[in-house]
Amino acid sequence: MVIPDIIIAIDGYSSTGKSSFAKLVASRFGFLYLDSGALYRGVTLFAREERLISRSNVIDPRLEKELDNLDLHFSPDGRLYMGDRCIEPQIRTLEVSSQVSPIAAVPYVRNYVDSILHAYGSKGRIVMDGRDIGTAVFPDAQLKIFMTASDEVRARRRYDEMVAKGEHPSLEDVVRNLRERDYIDSHREVNPLRRAEDAFLLDNSEMGFTEELAWIQGLMQGKFNLL
Ligand code: CDP
Q1: Positions of the chain with pLDDT lower than 50, given as ranges
Q2: What local confidence, expressed as pLDDT, does residue 1 receive?
Q3: pLDDT for 76-131, tens place per residue?
Q4: What is the 129 CA–ligand 1 centroid distance (Å)?
């Protein structure tokens, strides 16, 4: 199958398995995978470490200027770095998860992340996942997918993922965090989470990787006339 140089945009609610699915697509078709949420998490970690966000999520306006000095980038294997420090484990904690949506609602933070995403996007053959990739970051992406899954499945996945990493969250805290983020992400003023009109819907509540792979292969063949 010869795949053209395209951008695949995957959006959806928290913990719908976007990143696992995006990685599957990237490895199957030889694309670069980019996790836009990691960048919002990176900004959140930065704001926490620099004490520019309070416990009650009040954001210090100095953050805008400080972003000029923030170097976030991905390693070739897709891990997020702040300068020369790999920050993957630190950005996936429940503490960062509980502050990331307020940070991601700030317009200058979105501009900062968008400029990084656009720089990577100009390289072509990219799979990117997030909340506004198909609607705002790359509205002309050649293939858009919107992912959903039931609340129970999403909470269980995120909980299992955190336990596997040695964290001990309560299931209620995980559920609360998913709901809060979904609410903030869908109701913010700038580029809220919504399904693009031309996005294909993928509900993976009852799907494993084999079914997901069959689904995307069918879609790629149909959409790009590939045999
Ligand atoms: O992995 P999970 O689905 O839980 O979230 P994520 O993709 O790591 O994104 C973390 C947060 O960043 C989201 O809850 C959004 O608040 C924000 N985000 C966004 O606003 N726009 C994006 N394109 C990606 C993430």
Answers
A1: none
A2: 62
A3: 888 999 999 999 999 999 999 999 999 999 999 999 999 999 999 887 799 999 99
A4: 9
Residue 168 tokens read as 């001990």
User: How far apart are alpha carbons 186 and 35 in whole angstroms?
Assistant: 19
Which two structure tokens, joined as six digits, stand for 208? 């494993």
CA distance 195 to 95: 28
Integer angstrom CA distances of residue 17 from 77, 81, 89, 161, 225: 19, 22, 18, 11, 27
Q: How many CA atoms lie within 13 A of 148 on its CB side?
A: 10
Phi, psi at 127, each rounded to 5° = -110, 125
Residue with CA closest to ligand 1 atom 9 = 37
Distance between CA atoms of residues 153 and 205, nearest Å:
6
Q: Tokens 């995120």 label which residue?
A: 158
Atom number of ligand 1 nearest to Cα 158: 4
Closest ligand 1 atom to residue 182 Cα is 14
Residue 33 CA, chain-centre distance (Å), reads: 11
